[in-house]
Design a protein that fits this description.
It is a single chain. The protein is an alpha/beta fold and 300 residues long. The chain folds into two domains: 224 residues, Rossmann fold (3-Layer(aba) Sandwich); 71 residues, Alpha-Beta Plaits. The chain is built from ten helices and 14 strands. It has a six-stranded mixed sheet, with helices on both faces. The chain has a four-stranded antiparallel sheet with strand order 2-1-4-5, covered by helices on one side. Helix 2 crosses helix 3 and helix 2 runs parallel beside helix 4. The relative contact order is 0.14. It binds adenosine-5'-triphosphate and magnesium ion. The site of magnesium ion (MG) has 4 residues, from helix 1. Keywords: ATP-binding, Nucleotide-binding, Transport.
Length: 300
């Protein structure tokens, strides 16, 4: 059974007399157990799709199902955890109270809630701030408590809209680790982002949305390939580089230098460097931005 099915959904908004076509026949299918990344630029229709799945708004046309049940049926959402794009809480509540509220709304008993809250507050590093009102939380702390609230009831499907926005690099690593652990223990995960590295590090399948339509669906290996612009080879600077690329070399330190090579030249450059016995220290993929990724994929 599919965890999520969106069949040919359309959604138009009217704003000050103007019609905005947010979704134009979007198809999206997510298998159970998948870690699915929903990648697309600003305004592509990611949040609109998620809001339709959560039944905050209704599609004009098409059908949406969660674990085989129509998403308009409240029962379809009993097994879901959800983190919206900009979570808003009653700001006089403390972090711990928000978790209690979330647990209660999912029918958990107090003992269970206390145990799970303790564990989650520690995991999202809010133990110290747990009894502070959330109006005193930073953006990243709000995101962390929202994440904990979304998973307190061990959902089977976790839906997150731009979960990593507002997080610092350490927060991003923490979220990615937690998402990986949840997915390994069987939770299906669906999250949106417009940041390629956030998606390619953890997702197994990536749906690319543009102008309200599914533009392409690729796996993580393809995303890594298509999103790589070039490679930066770092080597120990002991010899002279072959003529073809010696002008591109940049000195990094006393011992190390680097040379940037395109994807198509990587093989050639590496074999030449090997012939000359260069000591290669690292090969780092250099990433494209989302717009350039679209160009590459459309030319594929
Ligand atoms: N309530 C609304 N009223 C009018 N237009 C809307 C409304 N909600 C969304 N839109 C429009 O629908 C389109 C899709 O918006 P959506 O929020 O789904 O994009 P998104 O992919 O989530 O973008 P972002 O990466 O910026 O979050 C945009 O053109 C947006 O302006
Ligand atoms: Mg959005």
């Amino acid at each position: 059974m599919k965890a999520v099915e969106c069949d040919n959904i359309f959604k138009q908004f009217k704003y000050k007399g103007e019609k905005i076509q947010a979704l134009s026949g979007l198809d999206l299918y997510i298998d159970e157990g998948e870690m699915y990344g929903f990648l697309g630029p600003n305004g592509a229709g990611k949040s609109t799709t998620i809001k339709i799945l959560m039944d905050f708004i209704r599609a004009d046309k098409g059908s949406t199902k969660i674990f085989g049940l129509d998403s308009k049926d409240v029962k379809s959402r009993a097994r879901i955890g959800f983190l919206p794009e900009n979570p808003v809480f009653m700001d006089n509540l403390t972090g711990r109270e928000i978790l209690r509220f979330a647990g209660k709304s999912h029918g958990m008993d107090s003992g269970e809630i206390d145990k799970k809250s303790k564990e989650l507050l520690k995991r999202v590093e809010l133990r110290e701030a747990a009894d502070r009102a959330v109006r005193k939380y930073s953006k990243g702390m709000i995101q962390r408590i929202g994440f904990a609230a979304a998973i307190i009831h061990d959902p089977e499907l976790l839906v997150l809209d731009e979960p990593m926005s507002g997080l610092d690099p350490l927060g991003r690593v923490l979220f990615k680790d937690m998402l990986k652990e949840l997915n390994e223990s069987g939770t299906t995960i669906f999250f949106s982002s417009h940041i390629i590295p956030d998606i390619e590090d953890i997702c197994t399948k990536i749906g690319i949305i543009k102008n309200g339509k599914m533009y392409n669906e690729i796996d993580d290996t393809e995303l890594k390939y298509y999103s790589t612009e070039s490679f930066r080879i770092i080597y120990r600077d002991e010899g002279v580089l072959p003529d073809e690329f010696k002008d591109d070399a940049v000195k990094i330190s006393e011992e190390l230098s680097s040379v940037n090579v395109s994807k198509s030249r990587l093989d050639l450059v590496l074999s030449k460097m090997k012939e000359e016995n260069f000591d290669i220290v690292d090969i780092q993929p250099q990433k494209k931005d989302l717009e350039d990724l679209f160009v590459e994929i459309s030319e594929k």
